[in-house]
Amino acid sequence: MPSPYQRELFSALHSDGRMEIRVLYCAQAAYDRNWISPALNPYEKVLPGITIGWLGPSARFNPDIIKVLRDDRSDLFVLSDYSAPTTQIAMRYLTWRRKPWVFWGELPGLHQRGCLARSIRHGLQAPIRGGAVAIAAIGSLAVVAYQKLFPEIPVFNIPYFCDLAPFRAAARQRGKENGPGVGILFSGQLIERKGIDVLIRAFAQIAHRAPALELHLLGTGQGLDSLRKLIPATLSNRIHFLGFKQPAELPLIFAAADIFVLPSRHDGWGVVVNEALGAGLPIIVSDRVGARDLVDAGRNGLITCAGDIEGLADALLQLGQSHEMRQSFAAASAERAAQWDLDEGVRRWVELYDRAVMESRQ
Q1: β-strands 155-157, 239-243: how paired?
Q2: 254 within 8 A of 231, measured Cβ to Cβ
Q3: 229 alpha-carbon distance from chain centroid
Q4: Which of 43, 125, 235, 357 sits at a 20 to 30 Å CA gap from 176?
Q5: Which residue blocks in 191-300 are alpha helix, DSSP H?
Q6: pTM above the 0.90 mark?
Q7: Cβ-contact 308, 285 below 8 angstroms
Q8: Can you list the residues of the chain whose pLDDT is less than 70?
C-alpha cells in the first residue's frame, strides 16, 4: 500500500533522476492502517485486485500482474512481501522470463515456528532462492538473517529511510527543556507484538522512584482495552493514550518527548525509531527491533531483551533519573540523524541498481 514513509523515499529517487522508477501497489489501504489515502504521483499506481480472506486480511491478489510485468521493459524489478499471492506470481514469472529482480525484505520473524509453518515458509521463499539476483535487506540484522537463509545470493543493507527534516525542525523549535516532567513516548500499533504491556508493567515498577516520569502511548489497535486494564489506578494520571495521529502531526509530538521507547517482541524494522532519531531523542529498543542500526548502545540509547520487564524498568530509570545522560544521548541521536536522511537511502539504492544490473548483463 502507499506507505507515507516509503513514498518519501520513492519521491527522492524520482527527483534524483539517476533512475526512472515505477511503483505498483497491491492495495490502496490496509485493514490495520489509518493513514489518509494520498494523491498518487504519475510514477505510482494501485493495481486492481481482491483480498483472499481465507489466506489472511493482507493476502492481496492482483489479476493483472502478469500482463503488467509482460509489457514492462524495466532493467530491474524490486518485489516485497514474499507471502503475498501477487508477489509469489511475480517472482515466478520474472524468473521464467529471465528478468532481473531483487527481493526487498525486513528482518524475518524471530519466534519459534512449528514444522508445518517452517515448511510453508520454505516453500514461499523458494522463488527467492531460485530467481532473485540480490536481496535488499532492511537493516543489518536482516542482512545476517538473509545471508543464512540464502547464502548464494548477494545481500545489500538498505534500511528504511524517511524525511527527518520536519523532526529536526520541531526539535529545534522546542529546545531540549520541557520543564520538570520527563516524557516517555511510545509510537506504534497497540498490539501484542509491540510489547506495550511490557512497557506499562516496567513503568509501574519504577514510577514511585521517579515521580517526574510520564508515559505517552501514541497509536491505536486491538489491544487498547486490555492495555488500559494494566494501568494501576494510582498511575492513571501519568500514563496517557494519545490515539492515532497522521504523519504530519508526529514531529511536534516526538519533539515534546524526552525519551523514546520501542519494546517490541518483534519488529522487522520500526520507522518510528528513525523519527525518534530525527527528533534528537534518547532511544530504548528491544533486541528484537530491526532498527537497532540506529541505536548505538551507551551512546544514544539502550538495548534491552524483548519481554524483559526488569531490564526495561532499569533502562527507564537510568534515563529518567539522569538529565546528563538524556542530554548526552540526545546530542548523539541528533548527530547520528545526519547519516539517515533520504540522500543516503537514494545512494544505497543506486549502488544496488548499478551492481545488480551490471551483473545480470554479464
Answers
A1: unpaired
A2: no
A3: 28
A4: 235
A5: 196-206, 224-229, 250-255, 271-278
A6: yes
A7: no
A8: 110-114, 175-179, 362
HEC string for 135-175: EEECCHHHHHHHHHHCCCCCEEECCCCCCCHHHHHHHHHHC
Q: What interhelical angle do 115-131 and 85-96 show, nearest 10? A: 40
Spatial CB neighbours of 105, under 8 Å, sequence gap ≥ 6: 80, 81, 82, 135, 136, 137, 138, 142, 146, 268
What is residue 265's DSSP assignment? S
| CB 190, CB 224: distance < 8 Å | yes
Question: Which CATH number goes with the domain that contains 220?
Answer: 3.40.50.2000
At 46 the pLDDT is 95
Domain housing 353: 4-162+342-360
Task: Return the C-alpha cell found at 271.
Answer: 520507522
133 with 95: CB under 8 angstroms? no
pLDDT at 63: 96
- State residue 175's pLDDT score: 63
The grid coordinates listed for 56 are 489472511
Strand 239-243 relative to strand 259-262, pairing: unpaired
Residues 260-308 have pLDDT tens digits of 999 999 999 999 999 999 999 999 999 999 999 999 999 999 999 999 9
Please give the distance of CA 4 from its chain centroid, rounded to a whole number: 12
Would you say the C-alpha torsion 342, 345, 349, 354 has a positive or negative sign? positive
Q: Is 144 in the same domain as 248?
A: no
Both 172 and 209 in one domain: the answer is: yes
Strand partners, 289: 267
Residues whose CB falls within 8 Å of the CB of residue 132, separated by 6 or more in sequence, listed in order: 91, 101, 102, 103, 150, 153
- Residues 172, 193 within the same domain: yes
Quick check: 181 and 212 in contact, CB under 8 A?
yes
**245 shares its domain with 287:** yes
- Residue 31 in grid coordinates: 485493514
Q: Let me know how many helices (H) and strands (E) the chain has, helices first.
A: 13, 14
Measured from the Cβ of residue 232, the count of other Cβ atoms closer than 10 Å reads 11
Same domain, 155 and 268: no
* Helical (H) or strand (E) element with 1: none
CA 293, 298, 302, 308 torsion-angle sign: positive
